[in-house]
Amino acid sequence: MEKITLASQLLQYLITGLTVGSVYAMVAVGFNIIYNVTEIINFAQGEFVMLGGLIMVFFHVAVGLPLILAFPATVILVTLVGMLLDRLAIRPIRRPSVLTLIIATIAASILIKGAAMFIWGKDPYDLPAFSGRNPITFLGAVIQPQYFWVIGFLVITAIALSIFFDRTIIGKAMSACADNADAASLVGINVKQMILLSFALSAGIGAVAGITVTPISLMEYDRGVMLAIKGFGAAILGGLGSFPGAILGGLIIGSIESFGAGLISSGYKDAFALLVLMAVLFFKPSGIFGDIEISKIKRF
Amino acid sequence: MTLRRISIIATICLFGVGLLINPAQAFKGTYKVGAVFSVTGRTSFLGDPEKKTAEMIAEQINNAGGINGHKLELIIYDSEGDATKCNLAVKKLIIKDKVCAVIGPSLSGTSLAVLPVAEKNKTPLISCAASYKIVHNEKTGKPYKWVFKTPQTDTMAVEAIYSHLFKRGLNKIAIISVTSGFGASGRGELIRLAPTYGMTIVADEKYGPKDTDMTAQLTKIKGKTPQVIVNWSVGPTQVTVLRNWRDLGMSSIPFYQSHGFGSRKNIELAAGAAEGILCPLGSCNIAGLLSASHPQKDVTMKYSKDYKAKYNESLSSFGGHAWDALQMVVQALSNVGDDKAKIRDYLENNIKDFVGQHGVFNYSSNDHNGLSKDAFNMVVVKDGDWFLAD
Question: A47, A229 in Cβ contact below 8 A?
């Protein structure tokens, strides 16, 4: 076979990195939505991704719904799980401190993972790629059509969220909760409902990430934890609470992994991402887009 | 009232009659054999078929009148894949249940943890785990006295792959492996044995057990233009790596998988990308493919048929390890009775040309594994099914 040129190799690393990074970015955005409203880190975020993938497999492969129906059905179902998480695990806690709420999300994560194991077993599941599996060759690099879907959904998510937070009254209300929950409730915003909405939104975005990545990587019950860790890293790198930061952070971590694996050593690719993360935090503790003044007034 | 009383009496009588016409078979005594498998927990995919297999064999033997008129009593404990629980279970089997031999555990880690217990209590133990360290005492360079094992080692799988490559005249290989214990151990053996078979390793790439995409590693391999790629992993990643390999247009480079690929499910999940993949498999995975003259043809066919009939699920190679271990103990029991020392000596000296599910075993004082690389057959995926590779 023909030898692949270095330029093509680099392009390949970039494309792969951006694709994997898009998934991390979507997880990171999910972290941020909940963090902004509640100041807690939702450790069940990875489980939303896993549920998105597995429920999509159920609707699309087992039930046989067409893609166009299975996709919204999955997102709605996972969104409901997110809302249930808020109603059953977060809201009932008396005198909530940030720490107890975080612990509640860890418990929920274990519970969801266990339930998924009971329902689907331990085997990985496959989902047909949305537009076939015939790869496209571009300047010597090979692109799976599914890559476009993953990156495309990240773009759609980003645009939709910015419209939501900047142009709609609910979105603005959520932003208000993020700035100051007490003040927001004084002007008549129902903070509890905003929290519920934040869980619903981030579960929905997690589901989208899971649905789009499953045709590439398969999905099984315990995949969520690793994605949550990577997504959390992305959120921290970009600055916790910042949406552009989350997206940039995800893409950076994905690319570093890919270039690190390709150019230096694949065994240490996770370490490269963490090293960059630590270096950034060393020089700018609030992350790339984070604001140190804002992070001072946050409880966590 | 009377009607009720009559019906009660009638019921009791019926039960009595039921007991009378179905008497327990008269046995002279019982032989107690212990077993510890990872029946539940993360590694239940190993322990579950092992337990089912052992129970099936015990039932078959007892229905056929037992071992020389003795009932085979199998006591199975679940280690949950946990070394501490496994250790306790083996102690309980030996001290409380007074078994004459133990089969299992399922994992290399748990097997290594219970080694000293078997040695100290002078009880024969036949492990169903892969690592050669289970039967290799690094201090003496010989096997542990009381411990045997049935599964093939990584070394044999590597030897089977390298022999096949050697025959095809290919020697420029790229290794890609998962960073778990299984992958690391296989990678170590691939590197260690490469000079013996004249293999040059041009790339040595790794990925995590939960990674989503291995395109970067494969692109790097592509740049090194190897003749062959050897992947060593279990779980979903071994399917993802195949798909990436196909999508990157690297199908012209032959792809070898480890023996961890031995499940039809993997071929399905690969969605066509598994075509042409080669991997070493034990005979019990491919009973139907063996030629009629193959020594293991009959035992593997029978096991596969019985297992499917009883449990209505397809066979995994892991149950075969328990089959081998238990049948060896049964053979020893039928020849020397349930004296522990005699069973051990029998296993070491008299398990010769023992036809099992995973190979033809020959134990000796220097070899408590008893298999060679011939215990693996190289198979190739064609039209979504296994075929013997030439």
Answer: no
